[in-house]
Amino acid sequence: MNLDFTPEEQAFRREVREFLAAELPDDIRERVRLGRRLSADDHLRWQNVLSRRGWLAAGWPCEHGGPGWGPVERHIFDEECAAAHAPTVVPFGVSMVAPVIMKFGSEAQQRHYLPRILANRDWWCQGYSEPGAGSDLASLRTRAVRDGDDYVVSGQKTWTTLGQHANMMFCLVRTDPEARKQAGISFLLIDMASPGISVRPIITLDGAHEVNEVFLDEVRVPVANRIGEEGQGWTCAKFLLTHERTGIAGLGHAKQALRHLKTLAGQIRHRGRPLLELPSFRQRVVRAELELMALEITHLRVLASARGGDAPGAESSLLKVRGSELRQELSELTRRALGPAALPFFPDFLYGDVELEPERAEQAAIGAQYLNRRKLSIYGGSNEIQKSIVAKTLLGM
Amino acid sequence: MDFSYSDEQRMLADTLERLVADSSAGSPTAPASLWRTFAELGLLQLPFAEELGGLDGDSIDVMIVMQALGRSLIRAPYLGGLLLPGTLLARLANSAQRERWLSPLLAGESRLALAWQETASRYDAQAIATRARRQADGWVLDGTKQVVLAAASADALVVTARLDDGSLAAFLVPSDSAGLVRRDYATLDDQTASDVQLDGVALPHDARLGGDASDALEATLAQGRAALCAEAVGAMQVACEQTLAYLKERQQFGAPLASFQVLQHRMVDMHLNLEQARSMAILAAASLEYPAEQRDYRISAAKAYCGEAARFVAEQAIQLHGAMGMTEECQVSRYARRLIMFDHHLGDVDHHLEIVSERLTAA
User: Fold this and answer.
1) Mind telling me how many Å the CA of A129 is from chain B's nearest CA?
2) What is the overall mean pLDDT for chain A?
3) B7 interfaces chain A, CB cutoff of 8 Å
4) Mind listing the domains of chain A with CATH numbers?
5) In B, which residues are within 8 Å of A294 by CB distance?
6) What is the mean predicted confidence (pLDDT) over B3-22?
7) How far is the alpha carbon of B67 from chain A, nearest alpha carbon, in Å?
8) ipTM higher than threshold 0.85
9) Quick one: CATH architecture of B215-359?
10) Tens digit of pLDDT for each residue in A29-62?
């Protein structure tokens, strides 16, 4: 047992850091640093840089064109990206649908979709939740009726993150209304340009347009776009969700948020002294630091035990719970640190291109970011669902 | 970075698991025969360097031992009777002193204890009132030590004291020294400990161990804290296992308690605390070779974290066992008692949070 990074791992960290310093465009770095929303073009520009370097699909094995990194390298990469204010790679293609295609897709499907994802040519979104199917995802009602070589899909998906930019959607649909609810579900890949699809924005409590409703009205989807057998969709869905949850601990982001908080609370003055010296505030910062230390080791332990490319099991649910709680606590402390300065709200700056005075710009996103971070304990399966998963699968309750 | 045990470490863990399972049926106080078994298995030599007659075990080996002891109901004084006095001795003693005291300790032939804490200094090992005055023919010690683990069975105590020049020193004080009065008692966590009064205890020159003992003492206490974290993880694991088993077996309202979501989620919270504490115990063990400043930061972080986790797991273990958890008869209460008192050994949550807070870096 040894917790030190090896010389090779340290060299890898330097390589990533140098790459980020040289290749991350300044305008994108600055938008991320200030917590401003990125345009589709910002995302694509950065992902093209990563794609050229062969680092877009960080979690992929070599056989599919990934870098073949182990858990420690991925951890280092995530940490350095967050520290450098690089945008988070939009996960729906590389980290979510791709592992499903690798595991359950036909050879033809793998040959078609995986290289396109690797080259950053498709923007994927996730068609999972529905108005009536949130935590109880398996009760979804979007219907797919077989008609020759097509399915005809009708229904409504919701909370579709960045769906406004997507050209492809992976989608859970009900192909057998008679079967037990999990058994009647299939996994389809849908071209967003298909006739009958419309996307409407949902504005969240931070004023942002991040998620959408997707309406499907008799959309024709080739049967060839089904992953796995008909009725096997729930197996794909569960497999995908464990992948979704692994990154969800958001350790690199938590580390960056803690650094930011400490810097801020060291500069902001409270009754003539740095806020960080206020005992009640400092105590919470200390506890967050401890939680992060423990979570980092737990995270690495889970990754190490999942070596060999398999998705980690229910342990990723534990990481998701603690990771989201920690990031929410950090966003709460950062908001409080600002005091009255957390109140001003400049959506045209945060979500558009209107500029602000530099000192205002530094703090403009923090209040809204706190609101946005409430999603962390809800998406990818709410924390309550995660605990039920752990109780069932890990503890046999 | 590597979290796996070596083959030897896996064997060590298996051996201990069996040993602990065999002995757990008996009484909670470790019989003398158990200490002999420890000596025969090499456990007493394990934490010490080869040139001192040890087996050159590392901090992970010690973690494995302490975790296994934490899982068992027997209380062998591995920390108070071996690790604390032994490693301080190993750091400070000259070859004659090692020959006389360390070798028999490692052979299981004699026992030692470390008398470091005092009523007024609480968990601060440096702010002590015990004095050592130099005399023509040696030293004279005066002071009172509090809660000295394993002192009742010790042939000699390693005692810390201030010298007139302000430096901290450590002395070997035979238990039968004139002027040494011991008050022995049981602790709430099933150990034996003593308060020790030193009233003009006269010692020869060679009773002093090395020079200034300050750094060596802090290093020894750091080792002790890491060991305690591992022990607490072992006990937390049993508390979680027994609580889970109880929830599955106990029927109320016509269903097992394990089927109630509010209890499922509480059980997951216990498990989460256990796993996070395990990570911190690993971090603590892996930090012992670091420079003192970094070592103490991480050790304090781990001790504070494990203290809170241990309390949470203990309190919930009692709560989820219902009234049964309140009984002495129910095993989990013994682990709960130990987990609560974990915080009172070598510095509690407040003590260690303050240390982390003092050293918190701005970014």
Assistant:
1) 23
2) 94
3) no
4) 7-89 (no CATH), 124-231 (2.40.110.10), 249-394 (1.20.140.10)
5) 276-277, 279-280, 283, 305
6) 90
7) 15
8) yes
9) Up-down Bundle (1.20)
10) 999 999 999 999 999 999 999 999 999 999 899 9
